């Protein structure tokens, strides 16, 4: 074996030891709270990717779409016929289009009731609360109420929260936080959101 091969073998051996150590330490098994936040693209697509993954094993999945429920959504169209998937959408247009605080709050609270039902149902393996961070930011939904439902959810249930500027309290509770970093976005160079890519 030459020098390079020996060095590679040694560094692979070290890597294996480190990974084995981490695997040995990860002993707990329970549902997780994941937060996909930040200004970059990928939060909602990552959530739907996980939805697809869970459905692939035959688990029951529920998705609540706050804000963009009335929008076109390719991944929802593709998956909706799966009997294990339930999607609830907020019955209003985009919030800065309607600009009616009272009706938006009501629409938010209506769909939040669906979320509470999901978060109390042990048969649901994964719950996605897409764009819920804005509901807290606009004050349509009380963070204490959301925390309460998350804390009391079934032990085996995983929840994904998406949206920019996630509330501090939600971040404190999260097991996994991924901050999508906006290194560059086509939109800022005059490129339109693209069907099948952006929605
Ligand atoms: P996606 O749905 O593509 O995963 P996202 O959930 O991370 O995106 P949102 O803030 O929910 O991002 O925005 C939804 C729409 O805005 C998508 O069409 C997305 O491509 C676009 N978008 C995401 N990040 C940016 C950005 N930094 N600048 C401009 N547009 C963005
Ligand atoms: Mg999104």
Automatic annotation (TrEMBL):
GO terms for cellular component: cytoplasm. It is found in: Cytoplasm. Pathway: Cofactor biosynthesis; adenosylcobalamin biosynthesis; adenosylcobalamin from cob(II)yrinate a,c-diamide: step 2/7. Its EC number is 2.5.1.17. InterPro entries: CblAdoTrfase_CobA (IPR003724), P-loop_NTPase (IPR027417). One of its GO terms (biological process) is cobalamin biosynthetic process. It holds the Pfam family CobA_CobO_BtuR. GO terms for molecular function: ATP binding; corrinoid adenosyltransferase activity. It catalyses: 2 cob(II)alamin + reduced [electron-transfer flavoprotein] + 2 ATP = 2 adenosylcob(III)alamin + 2 triphosphate + oxidized [electron-transfer flavoprotein] + 3 H(+); 2 cob(II)yrinate a,c diamide + reduced [electron-transfer flavoprotein] + 2 ATP = 2 adenosylcob(III)yrinate a,c-diamide + 2 triphosphate + oxidized [electron-transfer flavoprotein] + 3 H(+). Keywords: ATP-binding, Cobalamin biosynthesis, Cytoplasm, Nucleotide-binding, Porphyrin biosynthesis, Transferase. It comes from the Bacteria. PANTHER family: CORRINOID ADENOSYLTRANSFERASE. NCBIfam families: cobA (TIGR00708), PRK05986.1 (NF004637). Required for both de novo synthesis of the corrin ring for the assimilation of exogenous corrinoids. Participates in the adenosylation of a variety of incomplete and complete corrinoids. Belongs to the Cob(I)alamin adenosyltransferase family. This is Corrinoid adenosyltransferase. The lineage of its organism: Bacteria, Pseudomonadati, Pseudomonadota, Gammaproteobacteria, Oceanospirillales.
């Amino acid at each position: 074996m030459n020098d390079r091969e020996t060095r590679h073998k040694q560094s692979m051996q070290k890597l294996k030891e480190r990974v084995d150590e981490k695997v040995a330490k990860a002993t707990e098994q329970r549902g997780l709270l994941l937060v996909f936040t930040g200004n970059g693209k990928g939060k909602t697509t990552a959530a739907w990717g996980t939805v697809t993954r869970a459905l692939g094993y035959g688990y029951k999945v529920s998705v609540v779409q706050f804000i963009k429920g009335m929008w076109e959504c390719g991944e929802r169209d593709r998956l909706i016929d799966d009997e294990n998937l339930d999607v609830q959408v907020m019955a209003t247009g985009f919030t800065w289009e309607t600009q009616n605080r009272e009706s938006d709050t009501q629409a938010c609270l209506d769909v939040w009731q669906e979320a509470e039902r999901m978060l109390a149902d042990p048969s649901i393996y994964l719950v996605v609360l897409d764009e819920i961070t804005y509901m807290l930011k606009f004050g349509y939904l009380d963070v204490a109420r959301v925390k309460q439902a998350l804390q009391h959810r079934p032990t085996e249930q995983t929840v994904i929260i998406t949206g920019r500027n996630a509330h501090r309290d939600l971040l404190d509770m999260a097991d996994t936080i991924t901050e999508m970093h906006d290194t560059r976005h086509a939109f800022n160079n005059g490129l339109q959101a693209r069907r099948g890519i952006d929605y």
